[in-house]
């Protein structure tokens, strides 16, 4: 498989695709497909986060874990779902914090491409999952690749903000140069943990304040009423 990344990322991550761990990951995914298992998202969306957010435009990194494992949900951006899909509970809580922090109006869709196009890298640590089986592709090699992506942002992007929500995301802090970038940590926005410190964390306003302080344009966190169109892949 040739490197599927845009040029801005390929310079730093292209060699990963010829590494032994990536070959093992390819073999695993091929075996899963041969066993007629359904994998989300569609392969054309595995690297969607990198396509929508070039390295030289990264301003904020939000880390998720697995893609959504239900039909028609995942499309390569953490916490985001395709147009027409019900807003998931964790994203609903993100909207609530946005409303409290910045007065953003909650929208009735869960498509976050408008953020990605502004420089918000919406990165899951594992880029695929089996239908209905959360965590099924963890430890197969994706984490090695996405760790390299985090390190690449840390080393080569302009001063940016990393939003680390929940224990798995917070474990990535050691990969980030905190002398250059702002790292904000809190519990995960899941209904199981949001009330333990996600609500009231003011991460969105704090991220924008950091960007402005470093001469960068802030993120417009207000999503459009109509989601950005991205055709569903078969």
TrEMBL record:
Hydrolase keyword on record: yes
Keyword DNA damage among record annotations: yes
Catalytic site: 66
GO molecular function, one term: uracil DNA N-glycosylase activity
InterPro entries registered for this protein in UniProt: UDG_fam1, Ura-DNA_Glyclase_AS, Uracil-DNA_glycosylase-like, Uracil-DNA_glycosylase-like_sf
CDD domains the UniProt entry points to: UDG-F1-like
Catalytic activity: Hydrolyzes single-stranded DNA or mismatched double-stranded DNA and polynucleotides, releasing free uracil
EC number: 3.2.2.27
Coiled coil: none
Chief location of this protein within or outside the cell: cytoplasm
Start and end residues of each Uracil-DNA glycosylase-like domain: 51-211
Keyword terms: Cytoplasm, DNA damage, DNA repair, Glycosidase, Hydrolase
A Pfam family: UDG
Subcellular localization, as worded in the UniProt entry: Cytoplasm
PROSITE patterns assigned to the protein according to its UniProt record, in alphabetical order: U_DNA_GLYCOSYLASE (PS00130)
PANTHER family for this protein: URACIL-DNA GLYCOSYLASE (PTHR11264:SF0)
Function of the molecule: Excises uracil residues from the DNA which can arise as a result of misincorporation of dUMP residues by DNA polymerase or due to deamination of cytosine.
Family statement drawn from the similarity comment of this UniProt entry: Belongs to the uracil-DNA glycosylase (UDG) superfamily. UNG family.
Protein name per Swiss-Prot or TrEMBL: Uracil-DNA glycosylase
Species of the source: Halomonas aquatica
